[in-house]
Amino acid sequence: MTATLTHSNITSQVKSTSSFAPSTSTEDRFTVKLHKLLEDAETQGFQDIIAWNRDGRSFTIYKPVVFAETIMRKYFRQSKYKSFQRQMNLYGFHRGSRNGIRGVYSNPMFIRDDRELSEQMRRKAKGVSKEVSKGGPSSPYMTGIFHPQMFMQTVSPIGNINLQLATLLQPVPININAMRCYSSKSSQDDDEESMGTIEGQILDEEDYIL
């Protein structure tokens, strides 16, 4: 039978655990603390607030407000949930939803029962776009930032195609004098052919009469 835990009980349990005494820089890393927090959620019974998902490759924060007020201060020495989310972004976590519940986080290097892998995670350099908070990789076409080089790479092929089409559709020069000479010669040939036909008919009629 699972006992019901109040906020005060959770806080006292978290405080009673010497989770992170002065230690090495690796143990002070955000991802290592987060991994330890999720382990404590199972052993101390506050999985209704934050817990691993069944796949072991993602976790869910079910109660962000309670999480910030009762747990964050002990593990991360702060109680601002936005600051926690900022750290998640810097470490490359992807945020999504599952079964209608928002606050599902995942990272290929953050896996249950493999804390050593989380020790290898590194923060992103400042200035990198917040692709994680949007639930996927950022695109230069979606950030609203103008990239001249990328713009030229996109426009140049279109310009080349337009130039080729313009070349193909360019009007063919017409020699008017040559056309007139050809037209006059064609008319003269037609007249001579018609005259020959008429004369032939007359000769045939004369032969018939004779």
Automatic annotation (TrEMBL):
One Pfam match: HSF_DNA-bind
Location in or out of the cell: Nucleus
Positions of the HSF-type DNA-binding domain: 26-124
Record bears the keyword DNA-binding: yes
Superkingdom to which the source organism belongs: Eukaryota
Annotated keywords: DNA-binding, Nucleus
Protein family (similarity comment): Belongs to the HSF family.
Protein name as it appears in the record: HSF-type DNA-binding domain-containing protein
